[in-house]
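YM 10:42: MFS transporter sequence, as discussed on the call
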Amino acid sequence: MQFPETFRALESRNYRLFFMGQGLSLIGTWMSQTALIWLVYHLTNSALLLGVVGFAQQIPNFLLSPFAGVLVDRWNRQHTLIATQALSMLQSLLLAVLAFSNAIDLWHIIALSVFQGCVNAVDIPARQSFVVHLVDRPENLGNAIALNSSIFSGARLIGPAIAGLLIAAVCIPACFAIDTVSYAAVIAGLFAMRLRKREMPIPSQDETVPRPIQSTSSLSPSSLIIGGLRVYYC
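YM 10:58: structure's back
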């Protein structure tokens, strides 16, 4: 399948599935975020508590991301993303059920926000590093990363706009329900991917023989400075 140069990464079937699933899921995520902000302010009428909820969402990601990144490198990224997306779907489902039943309270929102922050701490590094395994041609990797950024920016624009219309025309819980359904798209795409293991190139015999190291004592100070600048800027 041929695509314009701007979208050449979509020639890879796995990345195409990822692109479409993530696009729908991120729109749902931003709809849910917008509805959550509206709901918190509607329940509390407090800007302070609105900030507390935002803090509860971000602090687990801030604290756990360095450790989660190390673990993600050791785990199967496809399986990890399926798990994190399923947990995110569960979080949105609980928000929808509590909101539709009018049983939701502030502590529910804070607890679910902390839970989502913990999930995001694993999901974000797994998702970002997963792209490398989705493009068939290495020269398309840069385009895939650029398209990922465009997905995020586009969803950040479209999601809140749709959420505003839904909140005005229907109700706040409808945004949580749509977000729950949107996760099905990315989970289905992850299950449909056919990934193959990438073999690491085996170095040749010449590359395995260590090269003699030139003593720095024989080099002039100017050559050391120039060499350091080349390493730093190149």
